[in-house]
Amino acid sequence: NMTSNIGESPELSIDVTDFECALCMRLLFEPVTTPCGHTFCLKCLERCLDHAPHCPLCKEKLSELLASRNFNITILAEELIFRYLSDELSDRKRIYDEEMTELSNLTRDVPIFVCAMAFPTVPCPLHVFEPRYRLMIRRCMETGTKRFGMCLSAEISEYGCMLEIKDVRTFPDGSSVVDAIGISRFRVLSHRHRDGYNTADIEYLEDEKVEGPAYEELTSLHDSVYQQSVSWFTSLQDHMKEQILSHFGLMPDRESEPQSNPSGPAWSWWILAVLPLERKAQLAILGMISLKERLLAIRRILVIITRKMNSRQELVNSRERNN
User: Fold this and answer.
1) For the chain, give me the number of helices (H) and strands (E)?
2) Quick one: which of 60, 96, 189, 267 could link to 36 by a disulfide (CB 3.0–4.6 Å)?
3) pTM of the full predicted structure?
């Protein structure tokens, strides 16, 4: 209550600098206060804690705050800003909304995780510990897209796979395990950087459709290669099968309609993920938009691998006989 004893209301002198974040030097947005008494924008504090578990100003350790993720908005600061700096708050919120809109675009400046090969419909668990990728994953969750691209090399490979986040488990040290699954393939048109991580403009890839006699031939090839894949996996030693199943899950069933998915049958991507292939070969197959070519490539790979397995087994049997 700002009313004085004589019934007058003295003018309250409040300036935007009184509520300025010490990190971004802008009006506090979603203000949070640390246990040591310093107030920052929520997003600014989270980015600082990505690098070190200390208060950015006094360096007091904030391990408990990082472990609990209990970033409660400071109600008093928020209400004072809303009451006395409403115009400035509107401008600040507009800038924030524009940033979120820009970050939620799934064809332009798409966040790219540079790590390994990923395939449509195949699980891709990730351990995220680098500050740049902590920020990237958090933004994917905040914008609601829950999606990011996966590419193979630091120079950004020509093709990649879009992943969708299913769950994020955060640990006390700030790192996290991200459960993601492949959604669709894309071609990289151009790439750049944003706040330390890679981004790219992309176009999505879909398989070419075939009809008539070509479709009948494709269906026959699809069923044949599926059975060949099942036979190869069944022939593996038990410990190898257990390792594959623990990481990639069960092999998907054969689809009755091989062209029902724009990226092709799920089982074909599963088998490509578990086959012992060089990444260069995996990348070439990822970029194929002909299901027939992809199935033929899987067939050739399985034939070569089966021959090598048989040759090794014959060599072992021969040595046993000699002994």
Assistant:
1) 10, 8
2) 60
3) 0.83
